[in-house]
Write a structure and sequence with these properties.
By secondary structure, the chain is α+β, with helices and mostly antiparallel strands. It is built from 14 helices and 30 strands. The strands form seven sheets. A seven-stranded mixed beta sheet has the order 10-11-17-18-14-16-15, with helices on both faces. A six-stranded mixed beta sheet has the order 2-3-5-4-8-9, sandwiched between helices. β12 (327-328) and β13 (330-331) form a beta hairpin. Pfam families: Peptidase_S15.
Length: 583
């Protein structure tokens, strides 16, 4: 890594923080906080670019106590990169820029949900400014030309900005998208049923930062979702072009000049209980990027976007009480089942045979590997901590524990993770009657006492009482038939998912996940992704609901009975390097 202009880097860089506003391509002001590290004369340093979640704003200070940081995992990694608090002597600090997306915080304009032709150009403008103004910015030769060394990090909307940015700009060298989408049509409007609890919640959460600064098409879509239960096709199509799906099909004509960069390794982090972007989207993102870069990795955690504030899900912070982890969008610790030789001695729990790893260390080590080099990623002197295991696929398993065990998923005979492989389908269940709409209490998940009142229906499956680890995307064929000759005057909406019944008889909706089906007929669909350990006596069940609060206003206004039967195909059992899954 070298500085592009040695004359500009002839003077030392002084550690400081500046608030900077630039004008984007159309004159819109974009607000940034720029962290300049302390650097000696001539020292080159990479840039770590960060942005916030939807309705949030940039990070204007890294002066916090890491031990109590609970706003979002990822900012902890910024603190490590900047290297001003508890500095590591052998590691020069990195430049850090955190910026307000268009329509957020102190930036101008209106929100367009990361349109490559709008927010994508803002991304370019930020990097243009960095090249022009960061005198010690490091460069490497890329495609026979100097190219700045740039990493990106952020969660949710701040994860998607990275995928968009990497699709429009070749100056990104590594990225860590946390809890983000692959296809917004699936995330927000699955099967044509709007996920209105989150749509409304995101708008409400952004009231202070966004102050209503939404592009007109977004306000139109929100109004339609809450009043008609549908969203105009042109809006759905536009949202569908603003994610990885729009450029992961390498055979397609790519929209908006986007391309999938073959030289960008990505570490995806996705939560099993994330009711906005579930594991399925993390798998799709990972598989997309891994096709063109074998260094891409994925971590499945337990949490993510939750609705505990609406009492639909348990409070993750309460769930993690006593474990040593803190909830900061995702849990802060990964309890990886591994051999003692693969784990730093200070992190190894001999009683459980697990390596208890801070998630921020895994993220930072990944960035070091691809922005600085493998030698530094293996060096405790450079990292400031002993190098930690960073498997290709790390899956936190639903195993009934507060501190759930994670595994390193082994690759199959072809050298790929087993996430694509499927087991045998179950027989069709007997038809079960479900009343659609609000026929009782308006709740449908089962992790809270109040939501049990909705009485989700659990139906046994004949292929799921087997021990082992299941990580991947289940598939289902579901038949919805009318009761009686007339049926419903409106297309019935039924919610389908998986449940888990433990050996002691307790049962719940697996990962709090559910997906809608709208209309009569036979439907072939992917269910939300799963990451679960089944022990002796445990089994997966089919879960049916007539209403679900995640879809708040999307339901049949007149309750109507339907008959539902289904066949479910689980992902094939995976194996892990520590042998936990070999049951």
């Amino acid at each position: 890594m070298f500085v592009k202009d040695p004359a500009k880097a002839a003077q030392p860089e002084t550690a400081r923080v500046e608030q900077v506003t630039i004008n984007s391509f159309d004159g819109t002001p974009i607000a940034m906080t720029v962290y300049y590290p302390a650097l000696p004369a001539g020292q080159a340093s990479p840039l770590l670019l960060h942005s916030h979640g939807f309705g949030g704003s940039r990070t204007q200070s890294l002066d916090f106590d890491e031990a109590s940081q609970t706003s979002e995992i990822g900012i902890d990694a910024l603190q490590l990169a900047y290297n001003q608090k508890n500095p590591v002597a052998a590691r020069p600090g990195w430049y850090v820029i955190s910026y307000d997306q268009r329509g957020h915080g102190d930036s101008g304009g209106t929100v367009s949900i990361l349109d490559p032709n709008i927010e994508g150009k803002d991304f370019k403008a930020v990097l243009d400014w960095a090249e022009a103004n960061l005198s010690h910015l490091g460069y490497r030769n890329k495609n026979n030309a100097p190219n700045p060394v740039v990493g990106t990090i952020g969660r949710s909307y701040g994860g998607a900005f990275q995928l968009m940015g990497a699709g429009v700009d070749n100056r990104v060298d590594a990225m860590v998208p946390d809890g983000t989408w692959y296809d917004l049509r699936y995330s927000l409007d699955p099967q044509g049923v709007p996920k209105t609890a989150y749509l409304d919640g995101l708008v409400a959460a952004g009231a202070q930062s966004n102050r209503g600064r939404y592009a007109p098409f977004l306000l139109q879509g929100l109004l339609e979702a809450n009043t008609t239960g549908t969203v105009d096709d042109t809006i759905v199509k536009r949202l569908g072009s603003q994610g990885s799906i729009s450029y992961c099909d390498l055979s397609a004509n790519l929209p908006n000049g986007m391309t999938l960069k073959s030289d960008i390794p990505a570490l995806f982090i996705q939560g099993a209980k994330d009711v906005l972007f579930n594991i399925r989207e993390g798998i799709q993102n990972f598989e997309c990027y891994r096709r063109v870069n074998q260094n891409s990795k994925v971590i499945f955690t337990k949490y993510g976007h939750t609705l505990n504030s609406l009492y639909i899900q348990n409070d993750p912070a309460a769930d993690l009480a006593g474990t040593g982890a803190k909830y900061a969008f995702n849990e802060s610790l990964i309890w990886l089942k591994t051999n003692a030789s693969a784990c730093p001695a200070s992190l190894y729990d001999t009683k459980t045979g697990r390596c208890v790893i801070p998630l921020k260390d895994m993220m930072f080590q990944f960035l070091v590997q691809h922005l600085i080099g493998q030698q530094q990623a293996n060096s405790a002197d450079y990292l400031g901590f002993d190098p930690v295991p960073l498997p290709e696929v790390t899956a936190v398993l639903e195993d009934g524990q507060k501190d759930p065990t994670a595994i390193a998923v082994k690759t199959n005979a072809s050298g790929k993770p087993d996430l694509d492989e499927k087991g045998a389908p179950s027989d069709f269940t007997a038809p079960t009657q479900v009343v659609t709409g609000i026929a009782g209490f308006p709740s449908g998940l089962s992790s809270t006492q109040g939501s049990q009142l909705a009485q989700p229906i659990f139906v046994d499956l004949n292929n799921t009482q087997q021990q082992g680890c299941f990580v991947g995307v289940p598939k289902a064929t579901v038949k919805v038939d009318p009761v009686g000759p007339l049926g419903s005057p409106e297309p019935p909406i039924v919610f389908v998912g998986l449940g888990i019944k433990r050996a002691d008889g307790t049962q719940q909706v697996l990962h709090d996940q559910i997906t809608p089906i709208k209309g009569y007929g036979t439907f072939n669909l992917d269910l939300p992704g799963i990451s679960v350990l089944l022990k002796a006596g445990d089994k997966i069940t089919l879960n049916l609901q007539g209403y679900n609060p995640v879809f708040l206003t999307s339901f049949n206004r007149v309750p109507v009975p339907v008959m539902v039967s289904a066949s479910v195909t689980l992902p094939a059992k995976v194996q892990d390097s520590a042998g936990l899954c070999a049951q």
